Amino acid sequence: MSWAAKSFDSSFEGLKFMKKIEAIIKPFKLEQVKDALDEIGIEGMTVTEVKGYGRQKGHTEIYRGSEYTVDFLPKIKVEVAVLDNQANAVMEAIIKAAQTGKIGDGKIFVVGLEQAVRIRTKETGDAAISA
Ligand SMILES: Nc1ncnc2c1ncn2[C@@H]1O[C@H](COP(=O)(O)OP(=O)(O)OP(=O)(O)O)[C@@H](O)[C@H]1O
Ligand SMILES: [Mg+2]
Prior knowledge:
Layout: H1 3-13, E1 18-25, H2 30-39, E2 46-52, E3 62-63, E4 66-67, E5 73-83, H3 87-98, E6 107-113, E7 117-118, E8 123-124, H4 126-129
Antiparallel strand pairs: 1-5, 1-6, 2-5, 3-4, 7-8
Bound molecules: adenosine-5'-triphosphate and magnesium ion.
């Protein structure tokens, strides 16, 4: 069996299930979301500039003082890989930091994560996403 296949199997023997939390947020909320995740001990994240729209189709939202007439609005996607038992705390922290109560606050998608590998050490599963 290849190294990758073995590592994949062992993550299931240990029953350490993981999730990937993908949050689409307003760009000006990124610092607050990052600080909130730091505070609960999250040790890594990936941030991407993205564009999207929700049910208002982007038409009625204001971004930096001007109303966008296009369908796609600038958003930030924050991705965090966590153990199952951290997922609720991460979602709550993101909501608390990113919520304004106005339209376009964003969404959180929770995705089952099959495997993670720290490339330097080849650690896998929970060892790859925590200290
Ligand atoms: N169903 C979806 N699938 C993928 N991405 C989505 C979806 N809905 C929203 N998004 C992403 O989230 C961003 C923010 O969505 P938004 O908060 O406007 O959702 P909404 O459903 O319109 O809620 P609200 O009424 O609070 O505005 C979008 O710009 C898009 O990037
Ligand atoms: Mg919307």
